[in-house]
């Protein structure tokens, strides 16, 4: 899979250039490789090339992949980033290290109850629906503070920050606007006493805009693994 190795290096280079423009350390941005729809062997190849954090959207597909890669578990970090229904929280609480897509308190409460006591706290981000988002999931900016404080009080979870999936936009300025909104909300919540360190924003098409606005995790699928095929 020479493409994969080349693509990973190219994405790291994009992150480094954007970080440099923003006077940030490239290492302050974590690359989350979004491996949904791609086989466990692609994850294994990316891991061999030095990639450790992987994002998945579909619970059953992800759990199968995590089990197939059990031999690498100690050096892999699994992030759940997809829509999460309340009847699917248990396998997520049991198998993942992070959940970015917590979009209501009830989901967080279930994850907290179901996180096994022998595992470290589950890292979570609150998904926010900044204005005009393609994905309708997420709390509104106005609700965010109340929900975030409630999540931060739950056992077995560690609220790390905020996540969003903005509407695709063509120009870098249009891409930056919703990322800036999320960063401003993040700063307000921190000023309000929450110890947050994570802004999960930016994908293949807009990662530069996200890094310029302060992203600490960019979630990149297509630019690493290629176009997704949903036909099977
Ligand atoms: C699929 C997905 C990504 C990756 O998108 P690409 O455009 O392929 O980089 C990032 N975040 C979420 C929430 C996704 O569902």
UniProtKB/TrEMBL annotation:
The alphabetical list of record keywords is:
Pyridoxal phosphate
Keyword Membrane set for record:
no
Q: Where is the Alanine racemase N-terminal domain?
A: 7-228
The domain of life for this entry's organism is Bacteria
Q: Name one Pfam family in it.
A: Ala_racemase_N
Give the modified residues of type N6-(pyridoxal phosphate)lysine.
36
Coiled coil feature spans: none
Name any cofactors this protein relies on: pyridoxal 5'-phosphate
**Which Gene3D superfamilies did the record assign?**
Alanine racemase
Q: Which GO terms describe its molecular function?
A: pyridoxal phosphate binding
User: What is its biological role?
Assistant: Pyridoxal 5'-phosphate (PLP)-binding protein, which is involved in PLP homeostasis.
What protein family is recorded? Belongs to the pyridoxal phosphate-binding protein YggS/PROSC family.
> Record's PANTHER family?
PROLINE SYNTHETASE CO-TRANSCRIBED BACTERIAL HOMOLOG PROTEIN (PTHR10146), PYRIDOXAL PHOSPHATE HOMEOSTASIS PROTEIN (PTHR10146:SF14)
Indicate what this protein is called per its UniProt record.
Pyridoxal phosphate homeostasis protein
Lineage of the organism: Bacteria, Pseudomonadati, Pseudomonadota, Betaproteobacteria, Burkholderiales
């Amino acid at each position: 899979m020479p493409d994969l190795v080349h693509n990973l290096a190219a994405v790291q280079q994009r992150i480094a250039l954007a970080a440099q423009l923003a006077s940030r350390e490239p290492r302050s941005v974590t690359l989350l490789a979004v491996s949904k729809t791609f086989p466990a062997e692609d994850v294994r190849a990316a891991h061999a090339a030095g990639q450790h954090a992987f994002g998945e959207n579909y619970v059953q597909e992800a759990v199968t992949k995590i089990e197939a890669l059990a031999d690498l578990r100690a050096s892999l970090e699994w992030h759940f980033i997809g829509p999460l229904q309340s009847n699917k929280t248990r396998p997520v609480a049991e198998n993942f290290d992070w959940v970015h897509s917590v979009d209501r308190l009830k989901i967080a409460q279930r994850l907290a109850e179901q996180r096994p006591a022998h595992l470290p706290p589950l890292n979570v981000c609150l998904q926010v629906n900044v204005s005009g988002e393609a994905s309708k999931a997420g709390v509104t900016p106005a609700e965010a503070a109340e929900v975030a404080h409630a999540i931060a009080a739950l056992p077995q979870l560690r609220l790390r920050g905020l996540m969003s999936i903005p509407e695709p936009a063509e120009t870098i300025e249009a891409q930056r606007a919703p990322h800036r909104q999320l960063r401003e909300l993040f700063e307000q919540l921190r000023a309000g006493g929450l110890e947050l360190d994570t802004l999960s924003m930016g994908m293949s098409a807009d990662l530069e805009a996200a890094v310029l606005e302060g992203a600490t995790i960019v979630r990149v699928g297509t630019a690493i693994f290629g176009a997704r095929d949903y036909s099977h």
